[in-house]
Structures are given as C-alpha cells and as structure tokens.
C-alpha cells in the first residue's frame, strides 16, 4: 500500500492554522486532521478502548500518550478514503515526534511542514478576540501564557528539526488570511500532491 502524504501544520496559538486548513480543504484534495479534535471525539465515543485513559489525562492535565494519538490519526486516515492530510497542532514536542516516527514510518511520509509564523502580540490579540465568541476555554490570557510558553519551548525545536531536513515552508501569518493563503497555494502547487 502506498504511504499517505502528510503536511504538518504548526504555529503558535492564534497564528491562523485552522483558518488556513479550512481554505486548503476547500481548494485542494486534503483531509484536515486535528489531533486535539480526534482525542476529544474519542473520549466521547461509546465503547472507546481509549476513552477512559484520555479522560484521565485530560482531568490530570497530563499529555495523552503519543501511541494513542498516532493510533487515532492512523484510523482517521484509513477511514477517510483520502491520500493527502493536513495534521494540525501535532507534533507538539520531541516525544510526539519520536512516537510519530516509530508508529507512522511505514504508514505516512511527511512531505512539508507549513510553519505559520506570527508575532506573539498578534497571536494573543487574535486569541482574545476569538475567545469573545468561540466558547474555547483556552482563549484567555492565563491559558495563552502557558500555551505560548509550551509552543516556544517544545514546538519550536520540532520546527527546527524539520528545517534541518529542508522540509519547512515558512509562512508569514500576520498578513490577511487571503494573503497568507496566496503564499500557501504557491507551496502546495509546487508540491503537486
């Protein structure tokens, strides 16, 4: 079986990852997978083999084991009928990256990392504005400080890892969504997946 094509979508909270993934899905043959959404859905699914464990980690504020996340990503890929995937917000740290490489090496190939780079103050303003209507419990100043700290200390080294492999497309995310998407289209058209 041919491997799946994966684009990791990384950037700070509020950098516009979700907005750009929506635009990509509308204009290209990609399936958008969010690791966080898959974990939340699995937690709610009746008869889930992982539901209680995921719930325990969420309650304790600990990270769900990467094996579970990779298993859910693989199942979503297999169930989708698609070949090209955007994986949003994963890998977040070295443990995620190592687990992905171990579990998914025979399943998927990382073709690019779309790195949405945005100044911290712009990200914070976007998240606080989004928080007024999103209903997201993490769009507040206290949560944002923690999320940005985690991003700077844990996720940036992942981006650096893929830069060393010449797989990162650096996208300036402070522009309007349409301007950013113009840059994204150039990357995707060049990939020809």
Key terms:
single chain, 193 residues, alpha/beta, Rossmann fold, 5-stranded parallel β-sheet, 58% helix
Report on this model:
This protein has 193 residues and is of the alpha/beta class. The chain has eight helices and five strands; from the N terminus they run βαβαααβαβααβα. The protein has helices spanning 17-27, 35-44, 51-60, 66-80, 94-104, 120-134, 141-164, 177-191; strands at 4-11, 31-34, 84-88, 108-117, 168-172. It is globular and about 45 Å long. 32% of the residues are buried.
SSE blueprint and pairings:
Blueprint: E1 4-11, H1 17-27, E2 31-34, H2 35-44, H3 51-60, H4 66-80, E3 84-88, H5 94-104, E4 108-117, H6 120-134, H7 141-164, E5 168-172, H8 177-191
Strand content: 15-25%
CATH topology heading: Rossmann fold
**First-to-last CA distance:** 17 Å
Biggest sheet, open or closed, and with what strands and sense? 5 strands, parallel
Quick overview of this protein structure:
With 193 residues, the protein is α/β, with parallel strands linked by helices. It contains eight helices and five strands, in the order βαβαααβαβααβα.
């Amino acid at each position: 079986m041919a491997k799946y094509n994966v684009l990791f979508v990384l950037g700070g909270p509020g950098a516009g990852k979700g907005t750009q993934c929506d635009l990509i899905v509308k204009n290209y043959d990609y399936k958008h997978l969010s690791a966080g959404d898959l974990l939340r859905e699995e937690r709610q699914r009746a008869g889930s083999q992982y539901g209680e464990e995921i719930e325990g980690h969420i309650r304790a504020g600990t990270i769900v084991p990467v094996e579970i996340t990779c298993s859910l990503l693989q199942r979503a890929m297999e169930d989708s009928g698609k070949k090209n995937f955007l994986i949003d917000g994963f890998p977040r740290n070295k443990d995620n990256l190592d687990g992905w490489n171990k579990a998914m090496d025979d399943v998927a190939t990382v073709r690019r990392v779309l790195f949405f780079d945005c100044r911290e103050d712009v990200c914070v303003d976007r998240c606080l504005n989004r928080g007024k209507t999103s209903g997201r419990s993490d769009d507040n100043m206290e949560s944002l400080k923690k999320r940005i700290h985690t991003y700077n200390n844990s996720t940036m080294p992942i981006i650096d890892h893929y830069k060393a492999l010449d797989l990162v497309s650096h996208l300036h995310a402070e522009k309007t969504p349409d301007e950013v998407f113009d840059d994204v289209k150039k990357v995707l058209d060049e990939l020809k997946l």
